Amino acid sequence: YLYNNRYAGDQVFRITPSNEGEVQELKKLLGNIKVDLWQPNSASLIRNNATVDVHVRRNNTRGIRARLQKEHIDFKVFISNLQKEIEKQTGYRSSRKRR
Amino acid sequence: SESLYDYEVYHSLDEIQSWMFEINRTHPHLVDMFSIGRSYEGRPLYVLQLGKRTRTYKKAVWIDCGVHAREWIGPAFCQWFVKEALHSYQNDSVMRRLMNQLNFYIMPVFNVDGYIFSWTTDRFWRKTRSKNAKYHCRGVDANRNWKVKWCEEGASSHPCDDTYCGPFPESEPEVKAVAKFLRKHKKRVKAYISIHAYAQMLLYPYSYKYATIPNFNCVESAALNAVTALYSAYGVRYRYGPASTTLYVSSGSSMDWAYRNGIPYAFAFELRDTGYFGFLLPEALINPTCTETMRAVKTISSGLLKKC
Hints:
- The complex is a heterodimer of chains A (99) and B (308).
- Chain A is built from 3 helices and 4 strands, in the order E-H-E-E-H-E-H.
- Chain A is α+β, with helices and mostly antiparallel strands and 99 residues long.
- A 4-stranded antiparallel beta sheet of chain A has the order 2-3-1-4.
- Chain B is an alpha/beta fold.
- Chain B is 35% helix and 17% strand.
- In chain B, helix 6 runs antiparallel to helix 9.
- The N and C termini of chain B lie far apart (42 Å).
- The model of chain B has no long low-confidence stretch (mean pLDDT 97).
- At the A-B interface, strand 2 and helix 3 of A face loops of B.
């Protein structure tokens, strides 16, 4: 596997806070756990009705999902298994090359 | 050889640099290659200069790719641009005119250390790989490290953040090398273009404030013409406008620095997509993404040959 399969089970959530309260809640939530923000580049730039794409480690996906549902913050999973997408992006070629 | 090089896959830094040497070797009349400095980890920062050699004064366009390591479509576009410019020089009158009347400085991978790290260790690494004196975290956001409103809104002063502005402006050797080159050639460089991903946007100054640039009408119409040309390829819509209102406020960006350094047309492209694949844009989409962006960059460059 590429990158020693380190992204197996990781997911990318697309979250859309719809009011200032949700923005603050999301900033707090993302500030408490280590996440990799794809869009915007930092939590301080999160704003109302602007999508937030965040890469969540596999150990944290369940917790984040539960918190977002509890706070009724709109989200969807736009990449359900990051490792698979990475392998898709260039994986086959490089594995072919390795062969 | 260059003719076998696959422009529709992502390449490692070694492959890209070998390709640059081969391009330079096989196109002596249109290409020059040089290093403008060394990265934090000591790797050369190569630039390709494209354009017909003439003794007369020529305006220039600077294009950098790979400022943020994980944005792999950037370096793919810079390679695509070089391929298109050289392959179509003979039979495309627009490209021939551009190459005869302009020089293009192409920097396929700005953040060489970070790019290697994103290939070998952390696919989603963004920053440079410089070490910090006090923290275990590494790297500076090369698009927050420029000497323009450095480390103010939209940048972080914490070394572990992805938008860390660095210990001081131009602390990163990669930033300092490009700033030094552009300062030296500021009289001739009339357009600065930095290729990023993802969001499908064409941004122009300012990033660090909401004010309108003095030559707004010229830049705005250049951006409109560029996104219209881009759209004509496959109907993909790119939003365009000042970075501060179209994306978000950020200080210390290369685009603002280039503009404040006297380059009248400064742009940042955020290439495909808008968040289905994100940074993992499949290789199958390299061709359409680069084809449409090529049209936009040609339009911007052609605009430099006219009066605004």
